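Support request, please re-run this one:
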Amino acid sequence: MKRFFSILLALISAGISFAQNDLQPAAIVRLTKSEPITVKQLRTEVERMEKTTGRALSTNEKRQVLDVMINEKLAIQAAERDKITVSDAEINQQIQQLRAGMVQSIGRQPTDAEFALAVRNETGLDVPAFRDMLRKQALTQKYLMSKKQDIFSSVKPPSEEEILETYNLSRAEFVRPDTVRFSFIQVPFTNSSEKGKAKEVIDRLAREIGGDPAKFDETAVKSQTPNSGYQGGDGGYLPRNRQAAQRVGQEFINIAFGLKQGEVSKVIEGPRGYQIIKVTEAYGMKNLELTDIAQLGSRMTVRDYIGNVLLQQKQTAVVEKASQELVAELRTGNPFQIIESNINW
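Re-run finished. Output below.
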C-alpha cells in the first residue's frame, strides 16, 4: 500500500511539473507591456504547423515559428498603442466570405458544424480560435498598411510591354481544350434501393423528352417545382482533359463530346445518380491570343489575366519588403527576450 501511494505521488508530481513547465515563458515581448509567449503556446503552434505540413519541424523551423509569434505580438502591441482596431463586423465579413466559398464547392449553405469541421481540417483550430487568428492577422495587416503606405502606393500596374513579354514566354500554356457547356436533368441515389426507384424516374423522363431539346428544357424547368423528384440546371463548362475525366468519368466525357450543340443525350449512369444532358455551347481547342477570354463564363481576357498575375507578384514582393522593414523597426532596441532554458527544441 505504501508503495502504491509512493508511485501515485510521483505521477502527480510529474504531472504538476509538466504543467508548470508549460506555463513557463518561451519568450517575453515588452514593446508596450510585458507579455509572455508560453512554452505551451509555442508547442501548440508547432504541433499545428506539423499537422498542416504532415511532417516534424526541424529545430530551425521551430525557431522560425517562435520568431513569427514574437513578430505578431510586437505588431499587435504597436497597433494597440497607435489605436488601430479591428471590429467584429470586419471579422464576420471574412467568415461570411469563407462560408460563401464553401457554397460554391458543396452547392448549398454549410451548416455551422460543417463550417467548423472545414476550419479544423484546414487550420487545426476550433472556430473561436480561428476567429482570434483572423483578428490578429487583420490587425497586423492594418498596422502594416498604416506604417508602410508609401511603399504600397508605389506599386504600378504592369505595362503592356511586361504583359506581352510574359505572354510570349508562356504562350504554349494558353491553350483552351475542347470544351462544352451543358444543362442536366438528374435523379440522384445513395444506395441500391434508391437506385432502382431513380432508374424508373429517369426512364420515364427520357420517354417524355424523347430526345426533343425543347421538351428537355421544359422538363429541366419543372425540376424547380416542389417534390418534382429530380434535379435540373446548368452544369457549367466541361473541358476535355484528364482532370475532368477523373471528376465525371470517361463515359460522361465520351457522351458529352459526342453530342452536337443542342442535342440531348441518352440516360447516363453515374456513381451518385442518373443523368440526361443537353449541350448548350461547344468550343473547339484553341491557342488563345491576348484578346481571347481566358476562362469561359467570364469577361477576363488573357491580357487581363496576365496583368492581374503580374500585379499580384509585384504586390507580394512589396508586402514582403514592407514586412521585413517593419519587423526590423519593431525589433530595434530588443523589445523581447527568448528564454532558451525553458525551450526543449
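The beta strands are 25-29, 35-38, 175-176, 179-188, 231-239, 268-269, 273-283, 286-287, 336-338. Residues 175-287 form a domain with the Chitinase A; domain 3 fold (CATH 3.10.50.40).
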